[in-house]
């Protein structure tokens, strides 16, 4: 039986690939899913529904379409990894963590120590705080092989 992991958050680095490669190298039976990581494609997710009068309504429309994917994949996952980068504020990642908390879905956070303070509430409900993708892979190894 495969373990399903949703990789939420920051889209500007290759952290998802690092976790995938680590899990594969460890021989772990993990199926990974993620949000749309192409920024332009994500922003345009609702454009097919019609022209909007402002950027607010375009973002609103696309966020609702993106939420179909995000909510469905989070609900189907066994674990969610929520990555916060240091370059941009990932409000969507914080929302995903809150959604996990509301569902009682286990999640771990992945971020640098420098942003512990602004993420204290998010980290407080997480099952673990990781500072590296290797730590995430070790959690997966423990969960699947212990």
Structural class: alpha/beta
Helical content stands at 40-55%
Q: How many helices? A: 6
Largest sheet: 5 strands, parallel
What's the rounded overall pLDDT mean?
Answer: 96
Residue windows where pLDDT falls under 50 for at least 5 positions:
none
Characterise the protein shown here:
With 146 residues, the chain is an alpha/beta fold. The protein has one domain (3-145): 3-Layer(aba) Sandwich (Rossmann fold). Helices cover 48% and strands 16% of the residues. It has helices at 15-25, 39-43, 55-76, 91-103, 120-125, 133-145, and strands at 3-9, 30-33, 79-83, 107-110, 128-130. Strands 2-1-3-4-5 form a five-stranded parallel sheet, with helices on both faces. Helix 5 links the parallel strand 4 (107-110) and strand 5 (128-130). Helix 1 runs parallel beside helix 6 (133-145) and helix 3 (55-76) packs across helix 4 (91-103). The longest helix has 22 residues, at 55-76. The relative contact order is 0.19.
Layout of SSEs?
Elements: E1 3-9, H1 15-25, E2 30-33, H2 39-43, H3 55-76, E3 79-83, H4 91-103, E4 107-110, H5 120-125, E5 128-130, H6 133-145
Parallel strand pairs: 1-2, 1-3, 3-4, 4-5
Helix pairs in contact: 1-6, 3-4
In short:
By secondary structure, the protein is α/β, with parallel strands linked by helices.
Features:
single chain, 146 residues, alpha/beta, Rossmann fold, five-stranded parallel beta sheet, 6 helices, 5 strands, 48% helix, YtoQ family protein, YtoQ_family_protein
